[in-house]
Amino acid sequence: MDIVITALDPRDQAADRAGDHSSEPEPLGRSTDSRGGRPGSPFAIAIATAGGVGFAPLAPGTFGSLVGVGLFLALARMGSGLYLLTALALTALGVWAADSAERWFERSDDGRIVIDEVAGQLLALSPLVVLGQIEELGLRPQWTSHPDPGAIIWFSLVVTAFVAFRVLDIWKPGAIGWAERRFEGGLGVMADDVVAGVVAAVLVTVPSYIAVLYRLQTAAGLPT
User: Fold this and answer.
1) 207/125 Cα distance (integer angstroms)
2) In 22, 32, 67, 189, which residue has its Cα 20 to 30 A from 16's Cα atom?
3) Domain range enclosing 193
4) What is this structure's pTM?
5) Which range, of 80-89, 127-136, 200-209, averages the lowest pLDDT?
6) Could you give the number of structural domains in the chain?
């Protein structure tokens, strides 16, 4: 009989209701991950998803890289110094945004986080910024009705950098995979793509060097 009385005690019923309430799921956009940190901010989510590009239903990483190509085209005339500073600043901002977004999505390195692809793609394209500043080479886009050989080579190198970065980012060989496993949080999200971007930039210098030799030979009237 005591058991029945205890079960019907209003204080126990209130405690049960409080326990049920505490187990309710957090409202969307206010969740935290297992680290127990503060919820992510909408601004951080906007940065981490590259303005919402990361919510693409298919291949969000590839779309993130395309955002990087678009930024490259917009920033290429800034000069190599300002371009690299912008890429590094975006990388630092990405570490913060990705860390906040992981807490928001309650998932480590969530696929919707694509700021790492944006920053990595900018690094992969950085050698072309230097080439575009050398007037004698003529390796820069020319928006004319007639195709310019230098512009064609330049755009071909852009495609090469894009493909090289995407392959490295997906495959993650050597140091790229190590960087992904070595770090956690926002730094872990960004690290492998930064390394992939640097490796892709090194790979792009090979066809870039060939393009430079070709343009110099053409300018000098030498046989190619």
Assistant:
1) 13
2) 32
3) 2-220
4) 0.77
5) 127-136
6) 1
